[in-house]
Amino acid sequence: MNINIILAGVGGQGILTIASVIDRAALQSSLTIRQTEVHGMSQRGGAVQSHLRISNREIYSDLIAEGTANLILSVEPLEALRYLPLLASAGRVITSTDQFINMEGYPAMEDILTELHRTNLPVLVNAAELAREAGNSRTSNMVMLGAASPFIGIAATHFEEAIESLFHAKGPEIVAVNIRAFRKGEELSQHQATTP
Predict the structure, then answer these.
(1) 120: how many CB neighbours lie within 10 A of its CB?
(2) Which residue in 22, 50, 126, 171 has the fewest CB atoms around it within 10 Å?
(3) Which CA distances in Å does 176 have to 119, 124, 162?
């Protein structure tokens, strides 16, 4: 098993939390992980990204080469486009459709969607709406992780255990709402996979 994941978004959207949950779930699955730091603007609204590589064998580099990413997991649609050159031809884009307009000349959403639909079966997620349905609008990052989880090759139970471990100190309701958000995203991906 080898999977290369690009995590992308803007500051304040929970990329570091997504990375932490994936890391914990991979370790629980006895897998090897290599990850770059989350790079980008440290302030809210600045572009951020991280390379995350998971394998059942030793990994020699943190960086994902052009054309070799199996998955782009983005919490902002324009940020997903930024990393398309890294995507493998059979790779998947899982992105939120919730825009964070942080620059002049931000493209029209229909132009972004046109480009995303040129990739292999993208999964487009209204993460903010699903997070609200789960009970807390701040859990959209866990919705996105749930939507990506069927393509990562780690059991959902390991992700849920990792969420519980990460949020345990914040109390059982915070754990529960994050797991609900994760399941909302997971259900969306499973539904899209079975819909012709």
Answers:
(1) 11
(2) 171
(3) 34, 24, 12
Amino acid letter, residue 11: G
Integer Cα distance of 163 and 143 in angstroms:
12
Angle subtended at Cα 192 by Cα 113 and Cα 38, rounded to the nearest 5 degrees: 60
Question: CATH: 2.60.120.580, 1.10.10.10, 3.40.920.10, 3.40.50.1970. Which one for 2-194?
Answer: 3.40.920.10
The model's pTM: 0.92
- Give 81-136 pLDDT, tens digit per residue: 999 999 999 999 999 999 988 788 999 999 999 999 999 999 999 999 999 999 99
Where do the structural domains in the chain lie, given as residue ranges?
2-194
Tell whether the torsion through CA atoms of 113, 20, 90 and 63 is positive or negative.
Answer: positive
Identify which of 10, 94, 6 has the alpha carbon closest to the alpha carbon of residue 53: 6
Please write the tens of the pLDDT for every residue from 16-74: 899 999 999 999 999 999 998 766 655 566 778 899 999 999 998 889 999 999 999 99
